[in-house]
Every structure is written in C-alpha cells, then in structure tokens.
Design brief:
There is one protein chain. With 164 residues, the protein is mainly beta. Helices cover 6% and strands 34% of the residues.
C-alpha cells in the first residue's frame, strides 16, 4: 500500500493522510461479486477513469472525460459491451450516467471486471457521491460531495481502491 491508495476500513476510506467517511454496497463486501447483488467487491482495483458533468461541475482532474447526454453504462451480462461505456440510443439494459440527481456528477471508474468483462460478475463499480451519510449503494463506494471532489483532485495514475 502507498499514500496513493484509497484503503477501505471500518471507519471509512484512508487516502492521502486523511480518513473519509463513505458508503458501500447494501449487501456488504463480497469475494464472489454477481450482477445486481448489491455488494462491494473485495480486491485491489485500479482507478481507470474520471467522468464528470461539465454542466454541473468544473473539470476535476486533467484526465477527466465529460459525461454527455447520450452516455450510458451497459449492465446487460449478455451484451458484448457489458460493463463498458455505451451511447444512447441503446437497446440493451444500461445505466444512465447523466442523472437528474447529483450522484454521478463525478465518477471515478474502477477496473472491476473491466476491460474484458466476465458475464454476470458485476458492472459499474464506481466511486461516486453518496445520497446521504450511511445510505448504502448498489456495490459502489460513495462519498460526501466535497470529499469526492477533493479525492478526485489528488488521485494519480497509480491510485488504487483497496477493499479487504
């Protein structure tokens, strides 16, 4: 582990010498992740992308990519683009990245089951904004808005999310 790592603990996530409260999946942590199980996958996950809503926030990081109105994330295990960014119109099951609420205004994308996804092993394990303190996710890690934005400014290409 290094100072660049986001390390999940029982008190929150340790990163860059600070402890940030967070939310995890409603089903807790699992070593056997499945699509739709609501669990956060155990492991060491690289941060492979930063996505943001340019109509709502400023660019948080030099490597960040704008989320457009047609941007979606495939969650259909039978889709050849499963667990990848796709564009509307899209006929398969997907999650809309440009949401009415602020949860996905800023997304740190992990390499969970990516880029070569195993069907059914889970998709869209993101780091994003929480609904409120203590409110669980569908498997992602979620933070308070200001904490997420602070983390996004400090991540490097070496940053990993460690979930034990």
């Amino acid at each position: 582990m290094s100072r660049d790592d986001l390390v999940l603990t029982t008190q929150g996530v340790r990163f860059a010498g600070q402890l940030f409260p967070c939310s995890i999946g409603k089903a807790g942590i699992t070593s056997d992740k499945r699509e739709g199980d609501g669990a956060t996958p155990r492991g060491i996950h690289k941060i492979v992308g930063v996505l943001y809503r340019p109509d709502r926030i400023k660019c948080p990081n030099a490597n960040a990519i704008k989320i457009g109105p047609r941007d979606l994330w495939s969650d259909d295990a039978k889709d050849k683009h499963y667990n990848q960014l796709v564009r509307a119109p899209y006929p398969r099951s997907h999650e809309r990245l440009r949401r009415a609420d602020p949860l996905y205004d800023l997304i740190l994308v992990t390499d969970w089951n990516w880029p070569n996804a195993t069907p059914g092993k889970g998709s869209a394990i993101f780091i994003h904004q929480w609904r409120r303190a203590g409110y669980p996710t569908e498997g992602c890690i979620a933070f308070r808005r200001d904490h997420l934005h602070h983390i996004a400014t400090l991540i490097t290409p070496r940053t990993r999310l460690i979930v034990r």
